[in-house]
Specification:
The protein is mostly beta strands and about 800 residues long. The chain has no helices and 59 strands. Helices cover about 0% and strands about 35% of the residues.
């Protein structure tokens, strides 16, 4: 993890303009204009929050835990990423803790930006504020960290705007930092010292979860006069939900001056995930025994959560939890864990709640039209462990969501599931038939939601609604010289063969590898492709394809199988002609040996390599089939016999102690190797920069014109050139960016501008060997970015409904 030290409280204004494509570099580096888009996957990550603006139709935002925030574009029927401009040095801003859209002035939007609240980063949380719906931003750095990718991230919203006096905002902070307030549209913030609520719930990293949602009673204030826009009366009654198992709901009746726990509130030891005040004065709250997003379900007779209604007029609390829908079973839970909560703005008696997390057989989404007196689920249990669905699910826009598996439509477990990690669901304030809900993998929508209210057999039509959202963690990319233009390995969702860059593909399976850590192909035989990744028990960690990734076969594991083994995939290298595979798996435990191994029969059997440390990073020479390379702990190793034996390069000194991404050999040139590293603030003594070898790793020369680099790759040579174009994400003259060299690294051209930086892009980059100028960039949460030279016939289309731009 990169770390950046943030000092005392700072208020910094940064205006980012989204006009124009090319920007002159202050360092004087040559620049070339590029068009940027995405290679389409559609979704791929957790959607913890959905935020509708209550005043403007079709103005809706979604936030992600590590991949920015999006605004819906009605014209293109896709989502627009709002944080592409976040750079490498401020990568922690890519995670969104909370988002607020202004009900008084819909042009205003705010983002609490910060991915981690623990020691994964030294960067503090940043409040972003915009007056043009996220087209440009200013920022304020707060004196503590946020946790957009921390446990409890689907609770909320933590960041809210007073519906009467929109200059007033509140934010619930983690780690004992309490409740904060701004009275100048988010420019400056002060702690609400009178808010002293207990916060005894901690996440598994040890930090306090804190105040997780704030809800206003708009009837206790007054909007400004429409003519002169003055005399707004600040809302007086405010409710706050806190992650505390004893007293979790607090109330202020004097505009936040004083606070007290609410009388008679539930005392079940649960945590309030969401609190919504309906227009008739009823406050609805979903409770869960855990904070989520992964935990939540309980078993063996343990209560897991509840749904409560509070009448703000009478002061009465009522438990309105939906009854458990399950066959009689001794292990069935007596209550569900709840997460998402929505109240229809135009009908305060219509409520929806979602379970979180049942995992098996599926989540439930319940709907009530009588204030929680009765509930209807989107599916029910039939006789004999069968299932009756009151919905149809269309996932054709993201066909990978079935994970390559099929189930009988009446089986109690469905595929795709209706969802998991449903931490938020929302009813469109302008269309009661529209529902959006987020899952751990995508965003779903219904456009005929009220069909659930009619007992006539009509089904709710659910469909993927994530066009434009690309929220994947990309761990590896290859672009072979023939066949599919791109193949990827990804965290959580395996990987893909992208034959059409503008169409979401199915997931690579056989074997299914949840997190694929690396992949490679034979340079002289691109039909042979190998991928590796993480699995458990005796499941295969490697898949082999002999038809350019169209079909796959599991390879044998390169070690003695053992139940409970959690060996990770590590890295893999395929010899230039495909005759040898060298694999360096990683052991999950110090007492388990996982040596580097090689295979001469496409992974059917393995032999142990000698002379190379376990867990080394491996790559192949792209010309000589017998030559392989390895790197570990500042040392470089070479094998001349197809991976059987490795010898340490005695003169290859001064190399980094660890690498951000895989080192690579250049196609077409034997022994031509590039190795890069970015500065690591956890190990300031480690070397960093760009290192080049032309003698098969016997020696390396450090480039003087690049200060540091996170990843490197190669693409088609420039017209009139023989040496492949080099692409990297690195720092030149103090400016981190994406660069291309057309002359073997002697000079560099910056190809991105400050609006296209993609935060934490450190593990995978490659050019296309068939299209000069095209680059594919693997990001951590922003999907696969595709860049083409501006005005070329290959550029991504602007305004494409598939979300390319």
């Amino acid at each position: 993890m990169r770390k950046k030290v943030v000092g005392f409280i700072a208020i910094i204004a940064l205006v980012i303009s989204l006009g124009g494509n090319a920007v002159m570099a202050s360092s004087g580096t040559r620049m070339q204009s590029y068009d940027w888009g995405r290679v389409e996957t559609v979704g791929g990550g957790f959607i913890p929050g959905i935020i509708y603006n209550p005043s403007e139709k079709d103005l809706v935002y979604v936030r992600t835990d590590m991949g920015g925030a999006y605004r819906w574009n009605k014209q293109t029927n896709s989502w627009k990423q709002l944080l592409d401009w976040v750079g490498f040095d401020e990568w922690n801003m890519a995670g969104v803790e909370s988002l607020a859209t202004d009900p008084v002035d819909p042009n205003r939007v705010y983002i609490a930006a910060g991915t981690y609240s623990n020691d994964f980063t030294d960067q503090n949380g940043v409040m972003l504020r915009s007056t043009d719906k996220g087209e440009t931003w200013k920022k304020t750095i707060l004196p503590f960290k946020f946790g957009g990718n921390m446990p409890g991230r689907s609770m909320g919203e933590r960041l809210v705007i007073d519906p009467n006096n929109n200059s007033v905002l509140y934010f619930g902070a983690r780690n004992g930092n309490g409740l904060w307030r701004s009275t100048d549209y988010g420019a400056t913030w002060r702690k609400v010292t009178s808010f002293t609520a207990g916060q005894n719930v901690k996440e598994y990293y040890g930090g306090q979860v804190g105040p997780v949602w704030v809800t206003f009673d708009p009837s206790t204030g007054k909007k400004a006069d429409k003519k002169n826009k003055k005399n707004a009366q600040t809302t007086q009654t405010i409710y706050v939900g806190v992650a505390d198992t004893e007293k979790s709901i607090y109330k202020s009746t004097d505009g936040g001056v004083t606070w007290a726990p609410m009388e008679g509130q539930p005392n079940e030891g649960f945590v309030p995930h969401h609190g919504v005040l309906a227009s008739d004065g009823k406050l609805y709250i979903t409770y869960n025994s855990a904070i989520g997003p992964y935990d939540g379900a309980a078993g063996n007779g343990t209560k897991a959560g509840s749904v409560w209604k509070y009448d703000t007029i009478s002061g009465e609390w009522t438990n309105i939890s939906p009854a458990v829908i399950a066959p009689a079973d001794a292990n069935a839970v007596p209550s569900y864990p709840f997460g998402g909560l929505a109240v229809e703005p135009s009908n305060p008696n219509t409520i929806m709640v979602a379970t979180m997390n049942m995992w098996w057989p599926d989540e439930h989404i319940f709907r009530s039209t009588d204030g929680g007196a009765t509930w209807t689920s989107l599916w029910t249990m039939g006789e004999g462990w069968s299932r009756v669905n009151k919905y149809d699910l269309d996932y054709s826009k993201a066909p990978w969501l079935d994970w390559g598996k099929t189930f009988n439509p009446t089986d109690v477990e469905q595929n795709p599931k209706m969802g998991w990690m449903i931490g938020d669901l929302e009813i469109d304030p302008f269309n009661p038939d529209r529902l959006l809900y987020g899952t751990g993998a995508t965003l779903f929508a219904a456009d005929n939601l009220t069909a659930l209210d009619r007992d006539n057999g009509d089904k709710v039509k659910l469909s993927v609604y994530a066009q434009g959202i690309e929220e994947t963690a990309v761990l590896g990319l290859i672009s072979p010289p023939e066949g599919a233009h791109l193949m990827s390995s990804m965290g959580d969702i395996g990987g893909f063969r992208h034959e059409d860059l503008d169409t979401a593909p199915t997931m690579i399976t056989n074997p299914y590898i949840g997190t694929s850590t690396d992949l490679d192909y034979a340079e002289l035989n691109p039909k042979l492709v190998v991928r590796v990744g993480n699995a458990e028990n005796k499941d295969a960690r490697m898949g082999v394809s002999v038809d350019n990734g169209v079909t796959w076969t599991p390879a044998a594991n390169a070690w003695m199988d053992a139940d409970g083994d959690k060996t990770q995939g590590g890295t893999v290298a395929v010899g230039a002609n495909g005759s040898t595979i060298v694999w360096a798996p990683k052991s999950a435990s110090a007492d388990i040996s996982r040596p580097v191994s090689y295979s001469r029969n496409n992974g059917q059997t393995w032999s142990v390599s000698t002379g190379v440390p376990e867990g080394a990073m491996v790559s192949s020479d792209r010309v000589n089939p017998s030559k392989f390379y390895a790197y570990a702990n500042s040392a470089f190793y070479v094998s001349m016999d197809g991976g059987a034996t490795f010898v340490k390069s005695a003169k290859a000194v001064g190399l980094p102690s660890k690498l951000n991404s895989k080192f690579k050999a250049v196609p077409g040139g034997e022994g031509d190797i590039w190795l890069v590293a970015a500065k690591d603030n956890t190990n300031t003594e480690s070397a960093y920069g760009v290192f080049h070898s032309t003698d098969s790793g016997a020696t390396f020369t450090k480039l003087k014109n690049v200060q540091e680099a996170a990843m490197i790759g190669f693409g088609k040579a420039a017209p009139g050139k023989k040496y492949m174009a080099i692409y990297m994400n690195g720092r030149i003259n103090g400016k981190f960016g994406f660069y291309r060299s057309d002359d073997s690294g002697r000079s560099w051209i910056r190809i991105n501008d400050d609006l296209h930086q993609y935060a934490n892009a450190t593990q995978a980059i490659t050019g296309d060997p068939r299209v000069f100028g095209r680059v594919y960039i693997g990001t951590n949460g922003f999907g696969i970015v595709r860049g083409d030279i501006a005005d070329s016939k290959n550029k991504p289309e602007h305004g494409d409904p598939k979300g390319n731009k």
